[in-house]
Amino acid sequence: MPYYIENLKLALPLMVAQLGQILVQLADNIMVGRWGGENALPLAAVSFGGQVAALFFLFSLGITMGLTPVVGELVGRKRTEGVGAWLMIGVMLCVGLGIIRMRLQLALQPLLFCMGQPVEVVEAALPYYRIMAYSIPPIMLFASFKQFLEGLGNTWISMVVLLGANLMNVLFNYLFIFGRGGCPELGITGAAVSTFLARCIAPISVILVFLLNKKYRTHLIGWRIGMASRRMLRRLIYMGLPIAGQIILEASAFVFTSIMMGWFDTVAISANQISNTMGNCSFSIVLALGAATTIRVSHAYGARDYQKMERSAWAALHVVFAWNTLTAILFFSLRNVIPTAFTANPEVIELAAILLICTAFFQFFDGLQNVSIGILRGLQDVKIIPLFSFLAYFVLNIPIAYLLAFPLGMGPAGLVLACSVGLFTAALLGIRRIKRDIHRLKAAQAQQEAELAEGNKAARM
Fold this sequence. Notes:
This protein is mostly helical. It is built from 16 helices and no strands.
């Protein structure tokens, strides 16, 4: 029982922060949907522009996640002197990647017209997509500080900063989408402007925390150039690239699902956005549990306390399964009510209710695969994760989605239902790998203890 409580205590600030972020997404979609009324185009444009932009952002964000297990292991070993050098390396890498990704996202705008989407949806999405590109560098700067703090075991600072930024985002949404308070009525573009401003507020706030708080200001000692090294940069990339690869492969399955939705019509895109948004609401808690599990496992891994590491890992899997059981029941029970909060279009409401049933079904596997990946990150066993994701999503999920939706005639429901196959496969492979890693670590520790005992016995003789 203590392991469940300790995991939840560490995850609580992350849950609040993730919920804050997802509520902003929820507010974006509700406000844009209400601004459009019965017209499904605005919600479809935000869905398409946001999904494609997310691919660029998530890959860059994945690189920062390598910072948490590296710093967490040092904390577990009580070797935190000069740990600020890792922050410096993380900031330089993440901001550099953010700028590269921003330029790439802007350069690839013409490709949006080659994805088989309705032309009016792409044209409406372009301003949103463009402004979201400019928001990548500042949020990457914040992410490097956030992952560093999580490696130290502090999840409260990023929670407070994100909540403040998210509240500002919702306020800016109200001002710029509807044109309140003397601001221009920008509609879809207003949602992107709001996100950009909020993403600028977050890094400024966290940097101020570091400068004003003596405890964290000491880590800035590591900003001396001589304390960083190419070896540290290579290790961070070594840890971060497989994590980024896994994230981008998983996200691609959902993005391709959204793109294939566009091969039907605007109604399908809008309905899918509603079910996606609700799935993301549930997944925000899953993400928090996964991040907290990475911290707990990395600290125990650094301390070589494999019993604590194992119990923390299984406790996290039990908690996430219970959470997803609850959300699945809610999605199924409220499938006809939830869509009415987003739109007044009766066709979108009817289809969204069907897609919510499919979303409810894959909830179980989604939580298990994410937390299992969080455990593997804590164990620094990340090289295998992209292979698992490739098999789960590109070999199985996407082809099965196409097969169900088009040749077998299941339509949009087939696209969403196929996600269950990919998520189940990723969860199964991840849990099997965890069992293997824990067995290997405990066996190696037992062998070392036996050799030490034998050595002590020989010395006494």
